[in-house]
Amino acid sequence: MSSRADSSAASPPDKRLHPESWLVAAGRGTDPEGPLNVPLVAASTFRLGGPRGYARGDGTPGWEALEEIVGGLEGGEAVAFASGMAAVAAVFDQLPPGAAVILPDDCYQGVAGLAAAGAAKGRWSLRTIGGADTAAWIAACAVADLVWLESPSNPLLTVADLQAICAAPRKPGAILAVDNTFATPLNQQPLALGATVSLQSATKFIGGHSDLLAGIATTRDPSVREALDQARTLAGATPGALEAFLAVRGIRTMALRLERAQRTAQILAPRLEAHPEVTRARYPGLASHPTHAIAASQLRGFGSLISFDVRGGAAAADAVCRRVRLIQHATSLGAVESTMERRARTPGQQHLPPSLLRLSVGIEDPEDLWADLDGALRSTVA
Ligand SMILES: *Cc1c(COP(=O)(O)O)cnc(C)c1O
Hints:
single chain, 382 residues, alpha/beta, Aspartate Aminotransferase, domain 2, Aspartate Aminotransferase, domain 1, five-stranded mixed sheet, 16 helices, 12 strands, globular, disordered N terminus, binds pyridoxal-5'-phosphate
């Protein structure tokens, strides 16, 4: 018994573990006498003769640990990057000249910006489609070289019918990528539905503490994995040692954090919807949300982001952001601390309702968060 226990302590974790257990067990290395956590190795260069020579192309133990954890969770092989946008750029880098790119009309502004910049330089043609227009997406799959989906979308939280779109016939060699940052692989697994690539900004829920930038792309296609790895090496878009270490530290608790945050979001969303100073609340878990039915059938959880419009326009919404105390007036999402911002103030987001606030619910007590929100909304009236 004891020798069996000894050897299993250093063997790789069982891929059949539940996601919550996998997040804790994976990415620890197999050295039977090593530390429980892959240490932070600050190295560009290794002595020749071993498995690595130079970190940019040969990898580091730290980012490989992150890749093992996320790859297992998404159900594919993961390639870690310096940021979410570095991972996005590596996917766009796969396109042949003159490629046809399809993007959702509500989309992370960095991705929309990168796609527009490439189109302006004549590298590809760009078309946008509403996230809920499933028929248009299915038609686009037949002709596009890159079908880029973001679901739920930022910040309108539109849920696309991934099951139908990922199963639609595609142009040979085309890439269907899903930005899975808002759902995380805990709520949705695009690769299992047939996506080529699932992408995360690890800056958000994976890191979870607003203290790092990282990104990760996962695929089941070995040639795509190889091409993304090569794009990372050539562009030098590698994660830093500290960032990889912190991302692994963060992902250990991702299931707990997400579970807590989305339970609180379920409490806050209907209260915001009923609030006299709120004209509209958007949350995929609300029956009033335009894509609630798809969300309910497709997502394991409705997530921890809520967008809502404040009565009185941009000035009133800005005042709410100034008045909250527990909630941080800040961009970004998916962290332990709740953050809120008026999205239309961001360049490239002027198509949004001017008073739309995007709230990323953290892990604080729900009643404390509600008191903060309600107080900030009510004092706007005075
Ligand atoms: C933040 C974000 C990105 C970009 O990730 P960075 O880590 O900031 O480079 C891409 N997509 C979505 C949905 C995001 O929220």
